[in-house]
Design brief:
It is a single chain. Helix content is 78%, strand content 0%. The protein has four helices and no strands. It is an all-alpha fold. It is elongated.
Length: 103
């Protein structure tokens, strides 16, 4: 196994673990924004599994690689998460936003 394949496999396994962890957090804490992170890690897992396997599928009807579309979907999940916690009192982003207002 070459280094690129090893890194892709390592990241895929790590992303699966993160996805499971955020799903458990979402269920136990009953917060919807954790499921946005589950989505992010699901899309990233799919991307790196394709990389590990050497698959380069294209989006039908375009010349766009499917991995690019999956990364865009993951980025939108992350942006959705950030948007939700921006107004969630007590979240790390809320605290950061209010700390800069006090200084």
């Amino acid at each position: 196994m070459n280094m690129k394949s090893f890194v892709a496999l390592f990241l895929a396994i790590t992303f699966v673990i993160h996805g499971i962890a955020f799903t458990i957090l979402g269920i136990s804490r009953r917060k919807i924004y954790y499921f946005f992170l589950t989505g992010t890690f699901t899309f990233l897992t799919a991307t790196y599994v394709m990389k590990f396997e050497g698959w380069v599928p294209r989006v039908p009807g375009t010349d766009l690689p499917a991995a690019t579309l999956l990364r865009i979907a993951g980025a939108f999940c992350t942006l959705g998460y950030l948007r939700l916690i921006y107004g969630e009192e007590g979240s790390w982003l809320w605290k950061l936003r209010h700390r800069t207002k006090r200084e």
